Amino acid sequence: MLDDETTARRIASLDMARLDDKPSSDALAYIIYTSGSTGQPKGVMIEHKGVVNLVLALHEKYALTAQDRILQFASVSFDMSVEEIFTSLCHGNTLVLRTDECMASANAFWRYCESMAVSVFNLPPVFFHELLSDDVSPMASSLRLVSVGGDKLPEQDIVSWYQRAPDSILMTAYGPTEYSVNISVAQLKAEASFQIGKPLANTAVYVLDEQLNTLPTGAVGELCVSGVGLARGYLNKPEQTAQQFVPNPYYEQGAVQHGAVLYRTGDLVRWLDNGNLDYVGRQDQQVKIRGFRVEPGEIESLLNQSPLLSAALVVVNKAQRHEAKLVAYVIAASAELEADLVTELQQYLAERLPSYM
């Protein structure tokens, strides 16, 4: 756009003197609306310091160089576009805008990326899976790194990716809109289970129980976050802001990552022995089965890790008035496994879960 002659003339005619007013680090950078459980959109207010922290952190994590060409895949109505646009332009990379035509098929997408020499892009899991479903079209030879975020990535997709692109880097990024795009990133390995990684710089993550007490490694709790990327809250929604953005009991004066405010994500995670975070599910799926608190997401996560399955979904069946039951819908990894699938899955879960689950 800046190369357009009309635009260039307009810029040249403007007063080139520096503006006296400079935005402070805590000035508002953008507002992006996100849907909530109530169905009413909430305007999330993100400050300049959060975007700057994101840009610097991802430049290091992605090992970006001036030769990288980054695809802007996301619409500007989604916060992923903030990562794509500013991480690219603030470090001298080329930002490549996708076209509607390149989304017509996996073949069209790869041909476009090849023609534009795209080396880095972020994709949602659904589109990532669509690309993998086409194992005929050649991938772009310029590809160096792909980051997938927004949902948990099936482990079979990770394996399939490295079978097709063994020399590339596959990463995942996790973060709610209420933090500056990403809280954590992780490089995914074909031989390892899915993890959402470690916190970005100047970001503190806490795994807490209902009373906001810290939990030990391996225990499932709510992911709460503090740091320079934290949003101000929800625009014109003080009550919802107060519910989700609470005083941080682990506040440390002078430590930017342990800020005075804590955001409760509602996501359930656990710390792993390697210092990474394991995503389990959503807190609001919690139910009581025979008096026990049960997380369907935890069972679903285990089922999706089983080599016997290609996909699994666990839901609560409340057809009976006085007793809720958990029902698992599964797809066998192959037709040969279907005969004894139920018995083998019951044994698989019994070895990994408490008896009441």
UniProtKB/TrEMBL annotation:
SUPFAM superfamilies: Acetyl-CoA synthetase-like. The keyword Phosphoprotein applies. One of its GO terms (molecular function) is phosphopantetheine binding. PROSITE patterns: AMP_BINDING. InterPro entries: AA_adenyl_dom, AMP-bd_C_sf, AMP-binding, AMP-binding_CS, AMP-dep_synth/lig_dom, ANL_N_sf. Keywords: Phosphopantetheine, Phosphoprotein. Pfam families: AMP-binding (PF00501). GO terms for cellular component: cytoplasm. The keyword Nucleus does not apply. Residues 20-235 form the AMP-dependent synthetase/ligase domain. CDD domains: A_NRPS (cd05930). One of its GO terms (biological process) is amino acid activation for nonribosomal peptide biosynthetic process. This is Non-ribosomal peptide synthetase. It comes from Pseudoalteromonas rubra.
